[in-house]
Amino acid sequence: MRKGTMSVALALAATLVAVLAPTTAFAAARGVDMYRLYNRYTGEHFYTASVTERENLRNVGWMYEGVGWVAPASGDPVYRLYNPYVTGGDHHYTLSPQERDTLVAAGWRYEGVAWASGGAVEVYRQYNPFAQTGTHNYTTNMAENDSLVAVGWREEGVAWRGVSEGRGVSNEEFAERARVQLRVPDLPSITYKIYDPWYWEGAGIMVRDIYFYQDGEVCAFASCLSDGSLARNIWMYTKP
Questions:
Q1: pTM over the 0.85 mark
Q2: Range of the domain at 192
Q3: Over 60: is that where the pLDDT of 211 sits?
Q4: Which of 27, 179, 211, 213 could be a cystine partner for 184, CB 3.0 to 4.6 Å?
């Protein structure tokens, strides 16, 4: 609150390039929330400190996965690069000026400093040698790191550091996104219930069901992606 076609992937990538503008104005004191998004058509995870960039990508089909970690207000620069030569495009992030310069020499576009590194929380990096897009993943969660390594990703150690771990999409955020898409009015008489995730085998993804109730009766429901975006079993609100 899946239709994985090449044309959709290219459209999302084109929009991403159009809206990208890495933030270099780091918020003071408490740190900077780093938003994590996922493009289910290309497999890429994307990370940004910009709320505007996050919302632009959500509006063109990227799935919001919550705050990946909290970056410090200042520290060592993390560089952002973009590869326009693979289907759907791909981003890479690195602390290393040498790695940055090597990729630029190979044709990647340098997009500037994306955020800062520093603090006690380690952000781990994994590499998928079988992918052309979404080749790297970054997470503070060692269980996620280990699960990817178990299915063939290569563990590449600590990419950078943050001041605290992230958090997933809250139930309130999930419900609000679903409510807006189902056209459910924001009324005191309307309540909702969110159910545990389940595996949608045909699409190969996890979804969660949400039901909205008005005066004790179901008035809308859907199976949603992790950010509350509608996925299947959609019953729009139709009451006058």
A1: no
A2: 171-235
A3: yes
A4: 179
